[in-house]
Amino acid sequence: MSIFTPKQSRPSPKTQVGILSWTTKYLFSSKIDIALSLFAFYLLYLILPPLLDWMIFSADFSAKTNAECTREAACWFYIGEKMNLFMYGMYPLEEYWRPNLLLAITLSFAFIVRLLRFQPYKNKAALALFIIYPVVAFFLLYGNDFLGIKIVETDQWGGLMLTIVVALVGIVASFPIGIFLALGRQSRMEIIRFLSIAYIEIIRGIPLITILFMASVMLPLFFTEGINFDKLLRALIGITLFQSAYIAEVIRGGLQAVPKGQYEAADVAGLSFIQKTVFIILPQALKISIPNIVGSFIALFKDTTLVLIIGIFDMLAIAELATSDINWMGRKTEGIVFVAIVLWSLLYLMSRYSKALEGRFNTQY
Amino acid sequence: MKTNDIITIKGVNKWYGDFHALNDINLTVKEGEIIVICGPSGSGKSTLIRCVNFLEKFQEGSIVVDGIKLTDNVKKIRQIRSEVSMVFQCFNLFPHLSVINNLTLAPIWVHNTTKQEANKKALSLLDRVGIKDQAYKYPNQLSGGQQQRVAIARALCTSPKIMLFDEPTSALDPEMISEVLDVMVDLSKEGITMLCVTHEMGFAKKVADRIIFMDEGQIIEQNEPNTFFNNPESDRLRLFLDQILTQ
C-alpha cells in the first residue's frame, strides 16, 4: 500500500505581459484582425486630427468677440460668455444661489448616505432624506411665498439645470411605479394583471414625442378653462408615464430570473406576500436588473432633449437659442459640442455608478 | 406513547394536466413519528410532502395538519407553514442575505421574536450543525454540504412541529452527504415529526419509524424498517430494493 502524498501546489506560470504581446493578442492575431485593426486606425486617422485641431490646437480661447475669432476653428470664449444660459436658462441671475445651493445639498446628501452606510439606522435615514429631498428641491427651485423665497416660474428654467431636473424626476418617479407595474403584471389577480399589461403595452407602443405632445397640447383640453396646468409639470408627468412602462419590463425580466425555489423558500418560511416581495424577491430581481435599469435611465436622460419640441429649454435647446444672439452668429457647432461633452460626462458617470452598484451587491463569490 | 395524529391525509388526488400524480393517498402520521418516503423518480413522493404545506394544490381529498384543515384560506396556510418547516433538494438559501440573516428572517418577521433572541437562537443552531464560524458569510461562499446544514438550521429556527425533507442529499457531492445525514440523525432524537423523501436507505434503517414505498402516485407498501427491508410484501418493492441495494 502506498501512501498518498499530494504534490506541492505551484504558482501559475507567468503569462507574457508587455505592450508587444498585448498588441499581437488583441490587434493582430489573425488576418481578419489585422485588416480590421488597420481599417480602424485609418478611420481614427481621418477623424481625430481634424477634430483635435478644431477643438484645441487651432481653437481660439482668448478672442473676446465674434469678429476676433477669425480662425477656421472653435471659438471657446463664446461658451464662457453663454455659460449662465447653458447652465440655468432664463433663471434670474440674482437667484442662481438657489440651484447652486440645491446642488450642494444633493452632493452632501449623497455623502451623508455614504457615511451612514454602516449604521443600523441607515435605511430609515435614507428613507427620510428621500422624502424630505423633493420638498426642499421644489421650494428652492420654484420658490414659496410663505417662506419668502421668490417664485421663479418654470418657463424661466432651462439649461443643464432643467435637463437634470427632468431626468431626475423621471428616474425617481418612474422607478417605484415601474416596480408596481412589474409586480402587477405577474399578479394572480386577473384585473390587476390585465390593467398592468394594457398600460405597459399601450405606453410602449407610443413614441415619447407623441406622449409629450399629448401632455402639452391635448391634456389641457380635458380640463375646464382657467385651470392652468404648468407646462413643465405636464412634461414631467408624460416622461414619468413613459419611463415607468419601460422600467416595468426591465424589472419583470429580473423578477422572472429569480429562481422558483426562492419563492417557495419564502412561502415555506411563512412570509406574507409583501414580506416575500420586499425581503426576498425584489432585492434579487433588482440586483439582476441593475445594468438594464441604468441603461434605461441613460436612454431617458438622452430623451429629455425631446422636451425642446414642446417649448421647454433644456441644454440642447439652449445651444440652439444661444445662436440667436446677433453678436455671436454662426457659433452653433461650439454649443452643440459643449452640450455633447457635458451630457456624455454625466452619462459616463451614471454608467460607472451602475458598475460600482453591481459590485456592491455582488454576493456570488 | 405516540398517540396524537399530527397529519391526516384522506383520499388525496392530484393531477398535473392529465397526469395523475397522486392517486388516492391515505396516510396518518403520529406526533414525533419519523417517516421515510422512497420510490422511483416520478412516483409522487415530493408532490406528496409538498402538499402537506400547500406548496402544491390538490384537487380531491383533505389534509389536516395539527388540527388545521388545509384550504385556500391564506391565513390558514400561513398558520400551517409557521409550524411546518421544509428543507429542499437545492437548499434555496437566500443568496443576498448572510447566513445569520437567512436564519433570523422568519423568526423576526413571522414569529415576532426580538432580534437579539433570534440571533442567539440562530447561533446556537448553527453551532449545533457545526458551522457557527460561517455565520456572517454569504451562502455562495459555503460548500454544498454546509449550505444544506444552514438550510436545516434555518428550518429549525422557527421551532417547527413538523419537518419536511425533500431529497436533502440528492444535490450533494458524495463526500458531503454524511455530514448532512449526521445532522438529520441527530435531529431525529428531538421528537420533531419528520417526513423525509430520500434514497439514503442506511439513514432510513437507522432512524425511521416507518418507511413508505410509493410508485405511480400510490402508496404501495408501508412498514417498520426491519420488515420493509427483509420481508417486502409486493414484487414492485422487492424489485426496487434489489436495484437500490445492489448499486
Q: Describe it for me?
A:
The complex is a heterodimer of chains A (365) and B (247). Chain A is mostly helical. Chain A has two domains: 80-152, no CATH class; 160-360, MetI-like (MetI-like fold). Chain A has helices spanning 19-26, 31-57, 77-88, 97-115, 122-142, 159-185, 190-204, 208-222, 231-257, 260-268, 273-303, 315-322, 332-360. In chain A, α3 crosses α6, α6 (159-185) runs antiparallel to α7 and α9 (231-257) packs across α11 (273-303). The radius of gyration of chain A is 27 Å and the shape is globular. Chain B folds into two domains: 1-83 and 162-171 and 191-247, P-loop containing nucleotide triphosphate hydrolases (Rossmann fold, 3-Layer(aba) Sandwich), CATH 3.40.50.300; 89-159, no CATH class. Helix content of chain B is 38%, strand content 26%. In chain B, a hairpin with a 2-residue loop joins β9 (210-215) and β10. The radius of gyration of chain B is 18 Å and the shape is globular. The termini of chain B are far apart. The model of chain B has no long low-confidence stretch (mean pLDDT 90). Classes of the chains: A mainly alpha (365), B alpha/beta (247). The interface between A and B is medium-sized, with 22 and 26 residues.
